[in-house]
């Protein structure tokens, strides 16, 4: 490629080196009921997806009662509540951002 070639000649040179497809593309027929002529993969008839099926034991339906973090502090220990709050581990001693004793 030399510096004095025009952009159009460079484009034509590169286009000539591209491989040709096995079969030339055919215009889509969107009015056809035959999906093979429409050239679209979605919208066909398929089985139900697992994503759209109802899940068992997930979210609030998976608990046996009202989550204890959905009630006031006074009602946390009452009967019929599901323990959904995990243990509060707090900050490890060396990485507590409120501890200013390390700055001294």
Automatic annotation (TrEMBL):
Residues 71-86 have a biased composition (Basic and acidic residues). It comes from the Eukaryota. Residues 1-104 are annotated as: Disordered. Residues 29-40 have a biased composition (Polar residues). This is Uncharacterized protein.
């Amino acid at each position: 490629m030399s510096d004095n070639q025009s952009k159009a000649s460079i484009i034509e040179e590169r286009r000539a080196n591209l491989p040709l497809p096995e079969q030339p593309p055919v215009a889509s027929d969107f009015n056809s009921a035959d999906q093979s002529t429409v050239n679209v993969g979605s919208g066909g008839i398929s089985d139900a997806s697992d994503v759209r099926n109802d899940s068992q034991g997930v979210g609030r339906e998976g608990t046996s009662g009202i989550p204890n973090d959905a009630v006031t502090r006074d009602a946390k220990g009452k009967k019929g509540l599901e323990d959904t709050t995990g243990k509060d581990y707090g900050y490890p001693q060396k990485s507590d951002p409120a501890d200013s004793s390390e700055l001294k």
